[in-house]
What does this fold into?
Amino acid sequence: MIWAFFVATLLLLARLFGVPLIADAVHAQESIVERVITSALIISLAFVADRVFRHFYWDRHLKRRRNRETPKLIQDIVTVFFVALASAFALWLQEGISLAGIAAGSIAIAAGIGVALQPDIQDIVSGISINMENSYAIGDWITVSTDQMPAPIYGCISGSSWHSTYVTLEDGTRASVPNHLFTTNVIVNHSRPVGAKRLDIEIGIDSRLPSDRVIDMMLGEAYKVVRLPGLARHPDPEVVLTQITQDAVLYSVRFWFFPNQCSPATAKSLMLRALQDVLLQNELPMPVTQIEMAPPPDIRDLLEPREIQEALMNTSLFRNALSDEERKVLGEHCKPIELQRGNVLMRQGDAAVSMFIVLEGAISIAINTPAGDQQEVAVSAAGDVVGEMSLMTGAPRTATVTALTRLRALEITRETIDAMLKKNPELFERFSRVLAQRQLEIDALANRKVDKQAVERDILTRMRTFFARMTGSKQAI
It folds into this structure.
């Protein structure tokens, strides 16, 4: 802008005071010099107007206030318009050439240039069309697929010129795509309309497993994963059965993500890692071509008595506090329960009569707010435990737990724990140490500093008092 003002000022001074000197220097008539300087002044003023427009509109109003970046192509078109208009005005004012004559000459020249530069003209027209229709904008994530490229291009539009649109790829490199490819091919714009977009992951599982149990396991993990940054909680994730083959059942896990926050590869990786963990944790067999050289696995044992023992073993409370024999006895007194989506497993403030280990599905853990509604604080899925602190200490429930999917859980009642404590009083101290460790982890997340031994003593005292009171009430009866 400064150079444009400087040149316009010099031309204005030359027009007012320097025409005779310049005419003498170049040995030309003063009238000719005057017309040339006047024409140059008019064109320079057009450049000044363009720079002012760029500064106050493109850079300040759109970019800073409205956070929108104008493509360079559009800015160049406006510049050409200003200069062309000023040139036509100068020719009319100084030489008397009519606008019709200028237009006729321009058309003839443009026709000759158009024949010679047909491919470039096609890119220019395509670039203008893209910007006029606003089909894509800087910052949009797109996929470009054409026969001229070996593989689709996925990236973010970072700029555009007269000839090309620049796409920044996921690896940080930049591809220059000719504009005409955007108007002659189908382009997927992942940023329009604004909002979350869906991804699909297909997983094959052994065809002998009940599909509803597999769906609940994977759906529970999906609900848990979509709470991570970059993924969308709504719409809800879903798992659908897409195909049955001779050896496998194919399931499609569908979930939503935000393209401007997370790449599709990263989003899929987050979901796949969680699904792999739940499949390994539950030892679900992957599809294999069956050659009957060995008996098939006992699926009933995998999903009933064996899964109860594995659920107890995967729970730190029982893995660290009980021996193998004690876990076996406890497993005989536990029972799997099933709840439909939306059912409440426990309510905040209620007395505790059971604790639960999630086998399949997902649960939402919410607390009451001062405003009277509920705020979700966590989501638990297969392998997670709820209600153990209240059951062991007699404290009221601290949260409301609701099934997000069809839910299978292992219920462990207060009477079962009471019977074990009566048989082996040493379990009081073992349970208290494990519960204290979990309480310390919660306090660490909340940045609360507490004494480990004090927490253990407090939990042990509360457990002994609660179960002693419960035993005394039974004796009174």
